[in-house]
Design a protein that fits this description.
Subunit structure: Heteromultimer composed of small subunits (RfcS) and large subunits (RfcL).
Pfam families: AAA, RCF1-5-like_lid
Bound molecules: adenosine-5'-triphosphate
Keywords: ATP-binding, DNA replication, Nucleotide-binding
GO molecular function: ATP binding; ATP hydrolysis activity; DNA clamp loader activity
Distance between the termini: 66 Å
CATH superfamily of the largest domain: P-loop containing nucleotide triphosphate hydrolases
Low-confidence stretches: 95-99, 430-440
Strand content: 5-15%
CATH topology of the largest domain: Rossmann fold
CATH class of the largest domain: Alpha Beta
InterPro entries: AAA+_ATPase (IPR003593), ATPase_AAA_core (IPR003959), P-loop_NTPase (IPR027417), Rep_factor-C_lsu (IPR023935), RFC_lid (IPR047854)
Number of domains: 3
Radius of gyration: 33 Å
Number of strands: 9
Mean pLDDT: 83
Length: 440
């Protein structure tokens, strides 16, 4: 799989990092204070919205100052022990780490409070306390009350949202390096949608450009959506079927608020419209059916399994088409259909409601649940009804809609001429039975 452009074109040096001049200056002063052996703060917290260059800055700083970067995602609770171990090791200069000159990067510390990882903040504080190496923490939102002890222990450095011109320079450089013709208005459009998030803008550019070799305003308008906006079902489908990368297909199914079962219906309806090749259709349905299995399993066993449902619904269906491997592949424009199943449900709502009340009425008389009445008793009831309609109408106080339902169900049994036998005359000592026999 080709490398994602935001990684491929991640700035290597501080100089290449766009926009964040104040932050760069503060970072340089801080690291130099460390190198002189008199750190003004043991750790800094880089904070700001996603995709503005927090991780990038830390990596560029390490490269510029030839520091070995020790990077870890703080919000992953599995790392709690690693943080503790690191705190132990970081308290000893050089010897265990070996090489002198390290920079410790703990990404996404604001993910910690959400996990209610009580011990993690203390572990980081301990690390900061003991460390003999500079530490950079990053966070999107450092203002959560639970992070206060951390805020007090570090130097806070803010990163601003990227503005239009720096973002445009980043995108233009990539277009040149990838030899892609990009319309200026298209880049402006992408930038407008990305809300100052460079990673988002680069991802969108890659999504439009790859495979087409050019980016026009029209294409951008069709394929790029505003950041943080939830996808409607049509956009989610397009996101899956048009995806060229695994992550695109996966985010199409996770960025929508449509219930996953409902999204499955949408995919189910539209797979044969999107894919022409029968084997592609078969593979897509295979992925969808497995997604459905994992959904049931996740309900029964644990929600961890839900991520496989998304993998199968998104990328599984997106890459069911082998055509996508061809460099010339272009997704077919399809007018996606509303799932018939839902239309049917809407159309038959009245009937289903009447069936529901009918089953309850019968169930009350025979002391059975709705399901049992439906599955075990309804066929027998229909046979009784043919014979004792008037009586049953009255006794069960059937409404016109309920009678209509009985008629409808009765028509399914039309072929069967089953009838009720008259109860036999009661003879002393003989049990009374009622049965029905099939009239041939
Ligand atoms: N200031 C910048 N100059 C140049 N490229 C940038 C800049 N900021 C971000 N990028 C690009 O966006 C990508 C994502 O940036 P990065 O991972 O550093 O963001 P972040 O602020 O750490 O985001 P998050 O909070 O989501 O982790 C980088 O790989 C790089 O390609």
């Amino acid at each position: 799989m080709p490398l994602q452009w935001f990684l491929k074109y991640r700035p290597k040096t501080l100089n290449e990092v766009e926009n964040e001049e104040d932050a760069k200056k503060e970072l340089v002063e801080w690291i130099e204070s460390w190198l002189k052996g008199k750190p003004n703060y043991k750790a800094v917290l880089l904070y700001g919205p996603p995709g503005v260059g927090k991780t990038t800055l830390a990596e560029a700083l390490a490269r510029d100052y030839k520091l070995e970067l020790f990077e870890m995602n703080a919000s992953d609770s599995r790392n709690l022990n690693d943080i503790r171990t690191m705190a132990e090791r970081a308290s000893i200069t050089g010897t265990i780490f070996g090489i002198k000159g390290k920079l410790i990067l703990l990404d996404e510390v604001d993910g910690l409070n959400a996990r209610a990882d009580a011990g993690a903040i203390e572990a980081i504080l301990e690390l900061i306390n003991k460390t003999k190496y500079p530490i950079i923490l990053t966070a999107n939102d450092p203002w959560d009350p639970s992070l206060r002890p951390l805020r007090n222990a570090v130097k806070m450095i803010e990163l601003k949202r990227l503005t239009k011109y720096p973002l445009k320079r980043i995108l233009k450089k990539i277009c040149e390096a990838e030899k892609i013709t990009c319309e200026d208005e298209a880049l402006d459009f992408i930038i407008e949608q990305s809300e100052g998030d460079a990673r988002y803008a680069i991802n969108m550019l890659q999504g439009v450009a790859e495979g087409y070799g050019r980016v026009t305003l029209d294409m951008a308008k069709n394929l790029v959506r505003r950041k943080d906006r939830e996808l409607d079902p049509f956009e989610a489908l397009r996101g899956v079927f048009w995806a060229k990368y695994y992550w695109q297909a996966k985010s199409a199914v996770t960025d929508t608020q449509i219930d996953y079962e409902l999204l499955m219906r949408w995919l189910d309806e539209n797979i044969p419209l999107q894919y022409d090749n029968l084997e592609d259709v078969w593979r897509a349905y295979d992925a969808l059916s497995r997604a459905s299995l994992f959904l049931t399993r996740s309900k029964l066993v644990g929600w961890d399994l839900l991520s496989y449902t998304f993998d199968l619904m998104g990328p599984g269906i997106a890459f069911a088409s082998l055509e996508k491997k061809k460099p010339t592949y272009k997704a077919k424009w399809v007018k996606y259909q509303f799932p018939q199943y839902i239309q049917q449900l809407a159309k038959t709502k009245e009937i289903r409601d009447a069936l529901d009340t009918l089953l309850r009425k019968i169930g009350q008389v025979i002391h059975a649940s709705k399901d049992k009445t439906l599955n075990d008793f309804l066929p027998t009831f229909i046979i009784y009804y043919r014979k004792y309609q008037e009586k049953l109408d009255k006794e069960l106080e059937l409404t016109e809609k309920e009678k209509e339902v009985i008629k409808l169900i009765s028509s399914f049994y039309e072929g069967s001429k089953a009838e009720i036998e008259e109860p036999e005359k009661k003879e002393p000592g003989k049990r009374r039975t009622t049965s029905y026999r099939r009239k041939s």
